[in-house]
Structure formats: structure tokens, C-alpha cells
Design goal:
- By secondary structure, this protein is an alpha/beta fold.
- It has one domain: TIM Barrel (Alpha-Beta Barrel).
- The protein contains 9 helices and 9 strands.
- Helix 7 runs parallel beside helix 8.
- The longest helix has 17 residues.
Length: 337
């Protein structure tokens, strides 16, 4: 028997519990969505350094100039505007930033969920650090391009030593041992960038996540960052025909778990809940899909920048926003709840 959540989630409704259908920090309810408050903010408040070189990385490795005090003041404003979580993406690997834990702890102290997007291999094999993150009720999103193809995963991150795969998996084991996937909503999940080399693993990957209470979103290349450049190698891009097949697979498998949802054009399994992207130098854009700079937190209040974004880009208003990415192609078939 499928047990559904008591919460009515934005764009998803009441979802089955214990299958990773919802992610802590992205668990916006319909009521919260209609409140006019801030949603989930992308904050590149961490170091631009990274030991890897992923070919589809959406960051530009820009230098962070915000001080810790400026970051804290920005977090204060994000909390005051009613956000539920902050995505810490880094310009590089967030966990190697000298102020990483201070930022995570301060975020949690403000009642916000810190979501850490990480390679996991670099620092999350340290059980003490993982325990500290668990104590702050952080959500962890390790890098995942494959659970089954070691060669491909190492190739994606540019690891010529072929060590990343094993190190990432070791970190995943530790995170699960510490119970990050024991909560509801889960605090362990992935964004899986689908290419024509890993698309054959989508069904097995989705089933693994559903069986282990791991959240997963399936994405295509972003229109910003490296994959948005004119010289980006698009040879791994999935065809529109195959995208349609993959969406059908996701819908069919999730239906087996009692999870009947719209297929969104961004993550397939989840509507977009992100609004505003703050760079490490304080610049602010509407979101990770639109990097047009509209202000800077160093020189003006975040509320004023938010209002300007909504004035210039009214499509971001939740009253009319339908959860589909505004900057990706629309899709013909989205299924239904």
C-alpha cells in the first residue's frame, strides 16, 4: 500500500513517502508557493577551486570576493524574505572553502536548509565532517553521472588517475550510514545530467534511488556556463526522440512506485523551485538558467533586487509560473498527476 505525504507539495501534490520523491530544502508546499515569499536561492558563496574539470560544469570558476560578513548579511536577507533553503553550488567545490562550515552552520541557525552540491569525494569521506553536516540537518547532493559505469564517471570529471568513482562511492556509503536518506523528505539526492553515453542507465538508476529513498532529478545540458558556450562540444547531446523515450521511462517507473507526477522540462521528477542566483562577487541574476546580472548584494538590499527581477522578468512570478524551466525548450508531453 502506498502511503502519501500529508504535505501538498508545489507541482507534485501528495507524494509517496520513503522513495525519495521529495528533497529536504526543495520541499515547497502549494501554500508556501502562493505566499509570495522567496523560494530556494542559488548562492555561489564558496571557493572557485575544484580538483575536477567536468566538461559540462555550469560555473565559470569566478573568484569569490564576498567576505564572510557579507555572506552572512546576505543569508540574513534570504531568511527575512522567507526562503526555505539555499543551494550552495560553489564556483568550484564548496567543501574546500575555508569558511564552508561557518556558512553552513550560519544558514542552519537562520532556520534555512543548506543544500550542498558537492563532488563528495574530496571531503565527505571524512566521517567527522559528515557528522557535523548531519547535525546541521544539511541536505547533500553528490555529483552523479553514473552509478554503474566507472570509466564514464571518471571521464566526466577529468580524472586521469581513475580515483573519483571509488572515492565518490565511499562518500555515498558514509552519507547513507549516517542516515541522510533515512529522513522524510530525504536529505540525500542527485542531479543526473543525461547524455547519450549514460541515458541507458536511467531506469536502473531511478529504481536504485526509489528503493533507497534517494532523490533524483534528470537534467539536460544547461543553457548557461560551459554548456551554453558556442564552442561547447554537443556530440553527447541526447536527441529529442530519445528525450521523449527517457521521460516515458521515468513516468512508467515512478508510476510503479505510486508516484504519478508531471514530467517537467528541467529535472523531470520535480518542478523548478529556484529563484535568484547570487555569485561569489555579489552579482545577482534571476536564476541559473538566466545569468543576466540585475544587481549586486554589495550595493543594495536583496529585496530591491528581487523586485527588479520580477519587474523585468514577470515570468518568474509564482502566481503564473508552472514549474517548468523558463529557459529550456518546452515539451509536448508532460504527463499528469
Amino acid at each position: 500500500m502506498t502511503i502519501l505525504s500529508s504535505e501538498n507539495y508545489y507541482g507534485l501534490g501528495h507524494v509517496p513517502i520513503r522513495i525519495g520523491a521529495q528533497l529536504s530544502g526543495w520541499d515547497l508546499t502549494e501554500e508556501e508557493a502562493k505566499s509570495g515569499k522567496l523560494r530556494v536561492v542559488d548562492f555561489r558563496a564558496m571557493s572557485p577551486k575544484c580538483p575536477h574539470d567536468c566538461f559540462h560544469c555550469f560555473t565559470e570558476k569566478q573568484r569569490k570576493t564576498l567576505s564572510l560578513d557579507e555572506i552572512k548579511r546576505t543569508i540574513d536577507q534570504i531568511a527575512e524574505l522567507g526562503a526555505i533553503g539555499i543551494n550552495y553550488l560553489g564556483e568550484g567545490e564548496p567543501t574546500i572553502d575555508p569558511d564552508f562550515f561557518k556558512i553552513v552552520e550560519y544558514t542552519a541557525d537562520k532556520g534555512l536548509i543548506p543544500l550542498v552540491f558537492t563532488d563528495a569525494a574530496t571531503r565527505l569521506r571524512d566521517k567527522d565532517l559528515v557528522r557535523r553536516l548531519n547535525d546541521q540537518y544539511a541536505t547533500i547532493c553528490p555529483k552523479l553521472d553514473s552509478l554503474f559505469d566507472e570509466e564514464y564517471q571518471n571521464w566526466v570529471v577529468g580524472d586521469k588517475k581513475r580515483e573519483y568513482w571509488g572515492q565518490r562511492n565511499e562518500a555515498l556509503d558514509i552519507l547513507m550510514e549516517q542516515g541522510f536518506n533515512h529522513d522524510e523528505p530525504t536529505r540525500l539526492g542527485f542531479i543526473y545530467v543525461v547524455t547519450n553515453r549514460n541515458m541507458y542507465e536511467v531506469e536502473d538508476t531511478l529504481r536504485h534511488c526509489r528503493d533507497n529513498n534517494l532523490w533524483i532529478g534528470f537534467s539536460w545540458f544547461l543553457p548557461t556556463g560551459r554548456s551554453g558556450r558556442a564552442d561547447f562540444d554537443r556530440s553527447l547531446t541526447v536527441s529529442e526522440e530519445d528525450k521523449t523515450k527517457i521521460r516515458s521511462i521515468i513516468q512508467r517507473v515512478d508510476a510503479e512506485y505510486g508516484f504519478n507526477h508531471l514530467i517537467y522540462n528541467n529535472f523531470a521528477t520535480h518542478p523548478c523551485v529556484e529563484f535568484m542566483e547570487i555569485f561569489g562577487d555579489g552579482r545577482v541574476s534571476p536564476c541559473s538558467g538566466n545569468d543576466t546580472v540585475v544587481g549586486n548584494v554589495k550595493t543594495e538590499p536583496l529585496a530591491a533586487i528581487r523586485d527588479r527581477i520580477l519587474q523585468q522578468y514577470p515570468c518568474h512570478r509564482l502566481e503564473t509560473f508552472d514549474g517548468h524551466c523558463l529557459y529550456r525548450p518546452k515539451i509536448e508531453i508532460s504527463g499528469g498527476k
